[in-house]
Every structure is written in C-alpha cells, then in structure tokens.
C-alpha cells in the first residue's frame, strides 16, 4: 500500500531512536501499535458492515424475484382455471343441447334392448323350424 521496504523501515527506526531516545521509544512503539490495531479493527468492522448490507440487498433482490415469479405463476394458473372452466361450461352446454334437439335415431340406436330380443326371437323361430324339418324327412 505504502510501498515501504526494509531499508526504509530501518531508517525510520533509527530516526525515531534519535528523536525519542531509548527511554521513550518502547512507549511510542506500543502507542503506535495500539493505534494501528484500532485502525485495523475499525476497517474490519466497516468491511463486515458493508458485506452484511450487500448480503441483505442480495436477499431482498432474490425475494423480489421469487415474489414476481410466484405472482406470474398465480396469474397463469388463474388464466388456465378460467379457460378450463369455460371449456367445461361449453361441454355441459353441448351435452344438454343434443338431448333436446337430437335427430331421430335409427332402429339400432333407438332400442339397444330390442336387439337382444330380436335375436332371441330369431333363435326361437329357428328352433321351431328344426323339428318341423325332422318330421318331414323320412
């Protein structure tokens, strides 16, 4: 950051020793270390606060996008339900309408119960015809 090398640090230490003297130099070094530590702690707390704010913003953006997608899905479901209800109503009208205006049905469609009865009559007629044929043949 400041681009200070070892030689420059040595020069600063020698100047501090000359200016402060050997008695006050340890106190000054402790004092400087204390202020450097406090500055680092402040910087770290500011950095952590910024990271928390960024995470909160990201969570809010994600929440907004999820809400929008849920609302869009809800609208699509409502539209689908409305369309489905319309189709069901149309089918009900189609089912109810032919019962009142249905064209006359053919014999096979009109009386499905009559088909088995007609078949049974035909079988009885054939059964009656068989003994008559036996009586005629010598």
TrEMBL record:
Keywords: Cell membrane, Membrane, Protein transport, Translocation, Transmembrane, Transmembrane helix, Transport. Residues 66-138 are annotated as: Disordered. InterPro entries: TatA/B/E, TatB. It is found in: Cell membrane; Membrane. The keyword Transmembrane applies. Residues 97-131 have a biased composition (Low complexity). The Tat system comprises two distinct complexes: a TatABC complex, containing multiple copies of TatA, TatB and TatC subunits, and a separate TatA complex, containing only TatA subunits. Substrates initially bind to the TatABC complex, which probably triggers association of the separate TatA complex to form the active translocon. This is Sec-independent protein translocase protein TatB.
